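Quick one: structure tokens for this chain, please?
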Amino acid sequence: MTYDSIIAGAGFAGAVTARVLAEAGRRVLVLEQRPHVGGNAFDCLDESGILIHQYGPHIFHTNDKTVFDFLSRFTAWRTYEHEVVANLPAENGRMELPVPFNLASLRLAFGPERSAQLQEKLISAYGAGTKVTILQLREATAPALSDLAQYVYDHIFVRYTMKQWGQTPEEIDPAVTARVPVFLSEDCRYFQDTYQGMPLHGYTALFENMLRHDNIDLRLNTDAREHLRFENGTILLDGAEFTGDVIYSGPADELFGCCFGRLPYRTLDFKFETFPADVVQSHGTVNYTMDEDYTRITEFKHLTGQVRPGVTTTVKEYSRAYTGADGEIPYYAIANADTAALYAKYAEKAAQFPRLHLLGRLAEYRYYNMDAIVAGALALSRKLIGESAC
């Protein structure tokens, strides 16, 4: 079989690109290392019949109508607006505060009288409905507002971030701390995007629909790195020169054998638990921002709307350093000056192959929301179509 394009990865980056190229008449080979499509957005039924997200919760949200309309070709949607709470120790047990911290959180944390005073000061200084950063609050002349900033930092941000990134408070980038928001609103949604929801029949069904095209040849359980070689500006597919486009969505360092050293990531360990109850949490996701060693627990039935009485499944997330060991998955790139310089070496090496395109979180070594990956894939694939038409 002769192919015009080879795509490594069947997650959002690869699947969207494959579909657009296929519809433009290109023969596309998609190589996916895992036994399933969907990348980290893959979902499936567990042994109890609960639809779970195997690699952690994925909630779709976007302000980009083009992205939403494209995905809507392959799925109907369940309306879902995600809400998150932080579970904290309290005087009489534990309490849950909406996250990001907002006016509802303020009342729960400080009681009706004190919160009313703080709310008046906040709205007077910054206006209702605004998002105020910790930095702004710390710079306020009113001591009460700087004290509020410290409360949010201590109870919502710092310990959670230490667990997520394996850092001490001194190591946490002050610029990141400064951007932590307080939302002067009663809106408890985690996202305020125009389009929010969950694929009605799951993410896996969405990907299967997207990749179902006569011009797409999908091969699962196939590591693209075992079939592709990059030598002297030439791309080889199974030893023969390949002159088409290669879109690669895996780790950029591993594509080149980590020849400059391994890029650092954080990985996640998941603990799935099934309970004989309709639900066990108040919200889909509960963050543990202070005392537990895990970062959050997600209960999937809140997200999916699945009706299955008497049984529910949750997942706890534990963050740790990625080592590259078999079975580990790199999730979050560690952004700093040193890692940027290291990644630049791999990007420069990739640029020696004009038909090689790095696309997605791992390939570009940066964090993307799902909608941003879709937008990037649409832009790249349409660019490639335009180039071939010239």
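The mean pLDDT is 95.
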